[in-house]
Structure formats: structure tokens, C-alpha cells
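Hey, can you fold this one?
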Amino acid sequence: MKKFALYTCILLAGLSTACRKNQITENQEDLPGLKNKTSLVNPNLVTQTRNLNLIYFVPSDLDTLPNYRKRLSDLMIWGQNWYKGEMNRNGYGNKTFGLLPDTATGGVKIILIRGSLPKSSYPYSGGSGAVASEINAYFAAHPTEKTSDHTLIIIPRYSFQPDGTPSGGPFYGTGKWCYALDYEGMDIKNLGKNDTDGNRFSVWFGGMMHELGHGLNLPHNCQKVSENATLGMALMWAGNGTLGKSPTFLTATDAAILNVNQIFNNDSKTYYGAVSASIDKIHASYSSTKSAIIVSGKYSTSVKVNSIVYYNDPNVNNEGTGVNHDYNATTWESKSIGLDSFYVEMPISDLQYKSDGIPYELKVKLVHENGNVTETVYNYTFASGVPVLTFSTQNELSKTGWTIASFSSEETSGEGTVNGRAAKLIDGSSATYWHSRWTSSATSYPHTIVVDLGSVKTANGLSLTQRSGLSRAVKNFQVLTSTDGTNFTAVNNYVAQNTYGAQYFSFGTAKSLRYFKVIANSAYDGLQFAALAELGLY
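Sure. Predicted structure:
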């Protein structure tokens, strides 16, 4: 009996110990602080009201890599200090992104999440959605673990190539989330080394900091020509190959955007709320005296603007425009003048590409104090080494007394109670729009609109504004004019840009007209539907 009682006590003690151990989560196990029952905080760590969610995501057929907490903590603290130095250099003081401390280790808090699927279910291309789904499920079950809108997910490498290069899952930014790779050489001891290990480390750690930039709202952009010798490589261009080895920096535009980032500010205000903003007037000219593009204008906004940033994005070798085609965008930054104006001078000597006919997009972005950035895109080119700037706001004719004389179709139910109607094309608001009929008996190109000015007017050209968001944007269109509404004379065929903001199309010579007809012939998305925000004359 005594032996049985002793055995029972030992068994119960063992079960009790096992239960207590199971209460220690994977996010606490194997941490020396737990064993020593100490509370450590790294004095170099910056913690904000809201901080970067740092996730270590492990597919079901992999395990954590050795010493990952220590290695990644060291690197994240180094990266935090690097961002701080760049913000300071750009005039914003010692601002940087916040990181939560792991008081058990003195490092950075890293949340370990073990995936339910093997690594083949989380491939580089298209795998981020499956990862995000499981992380969101974790946050739903542990809501206090998510402290901000910004998340960095680090995934252990899947394999090595024959030359020792690691390969793995998603490695890019998707909105305010970003993905990076961990491998055994992701260690601060390799920082700055010029051997194989150091070069490989610079690519993968620099890549992590680059993708983190995307997760912190930063687009691609490159250094000005004059900055090559003084500052080196812009992180958001090709800094993933230079960080820690040679001069690498954040541009002034990067810093302006980060200045209003949620996790760069130790406050409790609301970030990323809705913003209604537009550039109401813009003037662009080339000063031969200053050898600079000079841009000025006025804007309206529902949320205060702290900075205006200007991205000059060349379409080099017909690479296209948009995300992942904007690495070589050269940028400038200016502060708001009062509450509604901006001005900037951009020396063309700082633009690398100036060949005749090269297409440029000038993206004028309003950086709002709640962290949002609103963008309007304009187009220009070069001829004989001089920029050709034709997008300045024109003095448009008043639309008072204008009516829609006829239209091929309009949408009266599927676009809500306000939009879809043809009359929205001349209501003076770029926030409303006309849409071709699609809910029943959908119409196809060509789509036609005829506007009656009420009396004969003289105009030099037509203004056109695509729908906000560029959904169903019109590409090719024709303009005709008439004095009686019956007999129309063709003016010209035009190609609208797939950009938001007023676009201007010259008639060549002044026209006297009471009616004008716009025939939309094709769309940028190749589908049968069309939408436009505004039509006007100047």
C-alpha cells in the first residue's frame, strides 16, 4: 500500500509538472529569462504606443532555425537605430518604428506561429495570402498581441541552392504587411563583411529592411544624381544590396512619409482614416535660368497635409508604370505653404534619364498628418534635353447652363443613388462619375455623350478627368463639335492617360460651338464598360 501511495504521488507530481510546462507557450519556451525569473529590457530598444508586429512563421514541415530569437532581435534593433539615424538626418529627430521588448531575454518580442500546412502551401508567388490568413486567425484568438496595422513576417528558409544561396517563401510587401526570409547566416556578425557570407547577408538583410519600408508605406524611389557621391544608394531603390556595406539612406520623401507613420509616433490618435483630397490647380514650367522644373499649385483636403512629395518616374525602355516599375523614380519633398498650397524646384541635372520622347509620370502626393497619402499623376516628356510640360491647369469655361443633350447609355441603379448618371459628367465634381449601363442590357463600345452648352461658346480644347481609382478608364476617344446639334464636325482623335486628374486636349485652333460630342472607343482594361468623372472645355 505504501509503495502504491508513493507511486501515485510521484505520478501525480509528474502530471502536475507536465501540466505546468504545457501552460508555457511556444512564445516563451527556451528563454533564459524564464529560467532565471529575471525581467530584462534592452536600453537601446524604442517602444511606441503602437509597435511593429514581428512574426516568425514556420510551415508545418519545418522548424525554427537555431538561435533565431537572438539573431533577429539583434538585427531588428540595428535596423531600428538605422531608421532613427536617417530620420534624424532628414530633420525629424530620433523618430523610428516601435518594437515591443521581450522582458525575458532583453531582446525584441517575436511571436512564433506554426503554420498548419507544409512549405509547399506557402510559395513565393501567391503564398502570402495563406500565411496572412493563419496570422489573422492568431490575432483574432489573441487580440492583444496585435498592437498596430504594420506587420513583418519572417519565414525560415525552405532550402539552399547549390551555391549556398537560401530560397524560400514570400519575400515582398503587401500593403502594411511585409515578408522576409531567415537563414542561418542572418546574423549581425556578417554585417559589413566583404566575403561571400557578408555579401549574401547584405542582400537578405538589406532586402528585409527594404520590404519593411514597403510595410511602412514607402514606395520605390531612387537617389538624385547629386546624391550618389554624398549619400550613396537609396534603400527603396537597390539598397538591399548595399545596406551595412556601403552608404545607404532614406530619401527626404521616405522620411516625410515615415514622419506620419502610425508606429513612428508615440501617441494615441487615429491613423489611416478616410481622406478626401484633390489638387485643384497645378502649374508646371521649365526655368532655363535655374535649369529646373518648377511646380506649384493648390489643393483641398479634409485632413491636414504635412508634406508634399514629388515622384518623377521615367518609363525606361518601355518598362511600364506602376508598382515594381517605379524603382528609378527620382523624388523631391516640400512642406505645405499655409493650408492649401505647394511649390517645388526640381533641377533636371538630378534626373538620370532625359532622352527625347521618354515618358515620365509626375506623381504629386499629399502626405496627410493621419498617415494617408493621396496621389495625382501627371505626364510629361523631354525634347532636346528640355522637359515638355503640358499639364498645367487651364482656365475652363463655366458649366453654368450646360446640359446633357444625349448619351448612348447611363447606369441608374448599379452605381448607387448619386453616380452612374450622364449628368455627373458636367457637375463640376471629380468625385462623382458617369458609367455606361451594365446592370441590364449592358452596352459596349463605342459610348457616346453629347453636351449642350446652352449658347455658342469659343473653346481651345477639351478637358477630361478619369474616374477616381481608374476603374473602367477610357483610352481612345474622338471629339466632334456642332453649332446646331445635328451637324457635327470631327476635331481629332485622342488618347487619354490612365491617370487621375484633369487632362487637356487641344483642338489645334479655337472652335466656335454650342455642342460637343465625345465618342469613347476603347478602355484600358479591354472590357466593354466605360466611366468618366468630368468633361469640360477651356
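The first strand starts at residue 53 and ends at 58. Let me know if you want another pass with a different chain boundary.
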